[in-house]
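Notebook entry, structure prediction.
Reason for the run: the old model in the group folder had no record of what sequence produced it. Starting over properly, with the input documented here first.
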Amino acid sequence: MAITFKDVEFSHQANGFSIVKLVNSNDESQEYIGRVSTRRFDDNIERKKTRLTHRWEGTKPAEWYPTITFTESESEIKMGFKSTVNCRVFDSEGNIDTDAQNNIIESEKQRYLTEQGFTES
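New structure, fully documented this time:
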């Protein structure tokens, strides 16, 4: 049975975030209470519903844009950036191919480092 959500309960806060409560109408034990950005509120709610659906159904999204982190060697500062490339790769049986994903992530990191002029430690 596909997950459907009850009406979103929310309260806007002065700091640019909203506290939301999302409940699976098919299984009320599955609920999420947390913060989302008030900016583009409807888009953020839809993204959160999609993530929760995958989590509660035990499925993986077809697209994945991870946050890639590294330590800059000269300043020893930990840095990160959101990938602009879809890093999700499935094998022929529909399982996640972690080796291929890691290769894409590594090449995306090297591209970012080169464009920004950083070196990785």
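Summary: The mean pLDDT is 87.
The old model has been moved to the deprecated folder.
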